Amino acid sequence: VPGGVEVPVETDDIDHFGNRRLRTVGELIQNQIRVGMSRMERVVRERMTTQDVEAITPQTLINIRPVVAAIKEFFGTSQLSQFMDQNNPLSGLTHKRRLWALGPGGLSRERAGLEVRDVHPSHYGRMCPIETPEGPNIGLIGSLSVYARVNPFGFIETPYR
Fold first, then answer.
1. Which residue in 87, 110, 105, 103 sits closest to 141, CA to CA?
2. In the chain, how many H helices and how many E strands?
3. CA–CA distance, 147 with 47 (Å, rounded to integer)
4. What is the pTM of this model?
5. Tell me: the pLDDT tens digits for 14-38?
6. Which of 33, 82, 119, 135 could in theory staple to 129 by disulfide, Cβ–Cβ 3.0 to 4.6 A?
7. What whole-number distance in Å separates Cα of residue 74 and Cα of residue 144?
């Protein structure tokens, strides 16, 4: 830079947990309900144009089947929905605290390199470095650490710095 001070610029680390946001179960279900409601809205608008104005009642206009179908589709066919492991209370708790980097909007087993699977310094206090499956999912599935929590914005917080 002529006549100025050159300042080194650090690039963002894509593997840093400060740059990663979790999509919670509530957010995923909310998205599915939004899809179902938009389908239902389209059906209601269609029926309003075809039916007689004096004969219209809410019961004839509104059909909740699109919303129910969208929710059933999520729980029945989504990669992010699975039966909870309820063999014992500890396995159920572990299942609830599990973190996935796979699925829609995430990575695939084939594309994930070693850098993504490795333990990053930002995982300290946020994600357990030991509890990960062996095999093709190693490093892609993990668990929250003991004192970690997810804030309302979807970022993992920890009491440690």
1. 103
2. 5, 4
3. 52
4. 0.79
5. 888 888 899 999 999 999 999 999 9
6. 119
7. 24
pLDDT in tens, 30-78: 999 999 999 999 999 999 999 888 888 999 899 999 999 999 999 999 9
Q: Of all helices (H) and strands (E), which one includes residue 143?
A: strand 141-143
Dump the DSSP string for 51-108.
S-TTT--HHHH---HHHHHHHHHHHHH-TT------SSHHHHHHHHTEEE-BSTTSB-
pLDDT at position 157: 93
Instruction: Write down the domain spans for the chain.
Output: 22-81, 85-161
The rounded distance, in Å, linking the Cα atoms of 37 and 91 is 35
* Residue 12, token pair as written in the block: 């963002």
Q: Which helix (H) or strand (E) holds 150?
A: strand 149-150
